[in-house]
Amino acid sequence: MSGANGPNDAEGIPFRVLLRMEIHPGMEHEFEQTWHRVGSAIVTHPANLGHWLSRGAEDKSVYYVVSDWVDEARFREFEKSEAHVKHREQLHPYRSKGSMTTMRVIYGMTGAASR
């Protein structure tokens, strides 16, 4: 994301999904490997802009997934797809809790170090 897109310029502004997952203690490494292996179900979707897995700094069993989409409608289409159901089924055994937050990006700025 770059440029000075703002609240009145919806064109090119991603729809973002943030997942928070608590993983059963001791299963973190297996979860990470499985997430990476099945991630192609998301990044190969033509409306997906990117997909990232991060682990909490304080609690090593808490993970965050950020996924950007061209728009909400295309994300919702994927969310109901067979590919997404299969993806979730493979990750479900590792999860003890989870939540999802969706949002629209208002502004995006690229940091100097990424140039």
From TrEMBL:
GO molecular function: monooxygenase activity
Keyword Oxidoreductase: yes
Pfam families per the UniProt record, alphabetical: ABM
Keyword annotations: Monooxygenase, Oxidoreductase
Residues in ABM domain copies: 15-103
Annotated protein name in UniProt: Antibiotic biosynthesis monooxygenase
Keyword Oxidoreductase part of the UniProt annotation: yes
